[in-house]
Design brief:
It is built from three helices and three strands; from the N terminus they run E-H-H-E-E-H. With 66 residues, it is of the alpha+beta class. It is globular and about 30 Å long.
């Protein structure tokens, strides 16, 4: 299993860390699999599936449906 912390999530999704911090708190974002000293971590496969479902519409403004 590969994992991602917030920085890796941001890099993968092509958004800033600030935008990623907003996205990971959304109810439709996958739940973290654990919390370590670096923060929450996610299963990379879950993050990839989320990006596929979202159609890469992730950098939209905070309003709207992103």
């Amino acid at each position: 299993m590969r994992v991602m912390a917030l920085s890796e999530v941001a890099d993968y999704l092509g958004v800033s860390r600030q935008r990623a911090a907003i996205l990971v708190d959304r109810p439709d974002f996958p739940a973290p699999i654990d919390t370590l000293t670096v923060g929450r971590i996610w299963d990379a496969a879950d993050v990839r599936a989320y990006a596929e479902r979202r159609g890469r519409r992730l950098a939209d403004s905070e309003g709207g449906d992103a």
